[in-house]
Amino acid sequence: MSRFRIVLVALAVLLLGIQLVPVDRSNPPVQGELDAPADVMAVVEESCYDCHSNETTWPWYAYVAPVSWLVAHDVEEGREHLNFSAWTSYDADERADKLEEIWDEVEEGKMPLGKYVRLHGEAALTDADLEVLRAWTHAVRADTPLPDMGKPEQE
User: Fold this and answer.
1) pLDDT for 50-69, tens place per residue?
2) Per the confidence metrics, is the pTM higher than 0.90?
3) Omega of the bond leading into 152 within 30 degrees of 0 (cis)
4) 113: left (phi over 0), alpha (psi -120 to 50) or beta
5) Angle between the N-to-C axes of helices 92-107 and 127-143, in degrees from 0 to 180, rounded to the nearest 10
6) For 112-141, b where at least 16 C-beta lie within 10 A, e where not — what string?
7) Alpha-carbon gap, residue 58 to 78, rounded angstroms
8) How many CA atoms lie within 13 A of 97 on its CB side?
9) Separation CA 50–CA 58 (nearest Å)
């Protein structure tokens, strides 16, 4: 057998072998979902939910290693930073921080991730989507009550 064929067979065996490495593609139960206006939910569900919720739609390539490892890692990391399926578990300060972070990331073009949008063109944010998110994040932050710091001491 030629050296080329040996390398080719070894690569094929390796590619088949790595398919056996387990990857967590679970969708845990929704704990307390985001409650936002319909236009906001439409944008968030289309552009954010696959990585930032427990309602991920796992595409076919999420089942083929080594790409599956990258997809699972991105979803895990996305859920750690912001999980719309656990929105009600965040306190008022956390929600305000997350809203600010959402807008900052979107405004700077960091979200949704470019590599995600290349494969899911429908997730690209239009100018109208950006305006919906901007208006929502700013309006909700303005309504977020500040924590009670008590009365200032009288001197």
Assistant:
1) 999 999 999 999 999 999 99
2) no
3) no
4) beta
5) 160
6) beeebeeebeebebeeebeebbeebbeebb
7) 14
8) 7
9) 8
Domain boundaries, the chain: 24-143
Residues, the chain, total?
Answer: 155
CA distance 117 to 125: 9
Going by the DSSP 8-state scheme, the letter that residue 30 receives in this structure is P
> Is the per-residue pLDDT at 148 higher than 70?
no
Integer Cα distance of 99 and 77 in angstroms: 18
Phi-psi region of 7 (alpha: psi -120 to 50; beta: other; left: phi over 0): alpha
The CA distance from 105 to 95, in Å, is 15
Contact 132, 39 (CB under 8 A): yes
Q: How far is CA 86 from CA 29, 48, 61, 77, in A?
A: 9, 14, 26, 14
Q: How far apart are CA 99 and CA 37, in angstroms?
A: 15
152 Cα distance to chain centroid = 41
